[in-house]
Design brief:
Length: 268
């Protein structure tokens, strides 16, 4: 089981990378008369999302070139997108973020405080973590301010980062976000919340199983076959560009976190 998982991860990281595929997907949308917009643009169009495709990138690893390739294609096709950066990826992309903002793209915060708090404090149950909701929300608020200072720009939306510990305990970081928190932090929406995402006919994501590229095996072409009129598409740099240094830096961090968490869990 472990060897099979490692093999699939290696295969996923080394193959299935083709940035030209991303351009072809956007062109398919354009041919079908879709507007290609950022999530913020889509939010401001609600409830009229007919022939709208909201483009989103979660910048999970420090692959600057991979994200620049996305940006180059989007500029070529007069498309806009939202790029969500983690605190651990924002510094590497600081100059790139300035380019995005100057070009009218949205830059948001990819938050992970609930998962990080669980790992750091060796919490072993979801109920115990949820008891810390107010404290975790305060951490997110603090880091939003820190993030805004780094990019020298206000943040209008945030998106939840998915972590191995989220999968282990079967929860999502966005579950710690509510309307009161959004209002308090001058945020318009959280990208995963049903109140935003359910406005689209189709959510498409490249976070399928390791032996697939697309979640539920549905990409843009299948969505168009189903005659969807509004689409939100999430893509990641590691799915379209092979940057082994950045990918395996991220994999090593995850491995160290898992070893640390499980060792201390047994001790405590």
């Amino acid at each position: 089981m472990l060897l099979n998982s490692i093999f699939l991860r290696l295969k996923s990281d080394l193959f299935k990378k083709d940035i030209n595929e991303y351009e072809k997907l956007l062109n398919a949308l354009i041919i079908n008369r879709f507007q290609l917009v950022s999530l913020k643009n889509a939010f401001h169009k609600l409830p009229c999302l007919d022939l709208t495709a909201a483009l989103r990138h979660d910048v999970d690893i420090n692959d600057l070139r991979g994200n620049q390739l996305f940006f180059k294609i989007e500029q070529k096709l007069d498309a806009k997108a939202t790029y969500y950066f983690r605190l651990c990826t924002v510094d590497k992309h600081s100059s790139f973020i300035k380019e995005l903002l100057l070009a009218g793209f949205e830059v948001g915060y990819h938050f992970e405080e609930p998962a990080n708090y669980m790992k750091k404090n060796q919490i072993k149950s979801l109920s115990e973590l949820k008891n810390k909701k107010k404290l975790i929300q305060d951490l997110i608020s603090k880091n939003i301010r820190k993030f805004e200072k780094k990019i020298n720009n206000p943040v209008y939306s945030i998106s939840s980062h998915g972590d191995w510990i989220n999968r282990k305990y079967n929860f999502c970081n966005w579950e710690f976000i509510d309307d009161e928190f959004l209002k308090k932090n001058n945020l318009e929406f959280e990208a995963y919340q049903p109140s935003f995402l359910n406005n689209f006919d189709r959510y498409i994501s490249d976070t399928g199983p390791l032996d697939q590229k697309w979640r539920n095996n549905i990409d843009i072409h299948k969505s168009l076959e189903y005659e969807d009129k509004s689409i939100c598409m999430l893509t990641h740099e590691r799915s379209f560009n092979t940057n082994l240094l950045a990918i395996w830096e991220s994999n090593l961090i995850v491995l160290i976190e898992k070893i640390t968490y499980f060792i201390f869990s047994k001790i405590s």
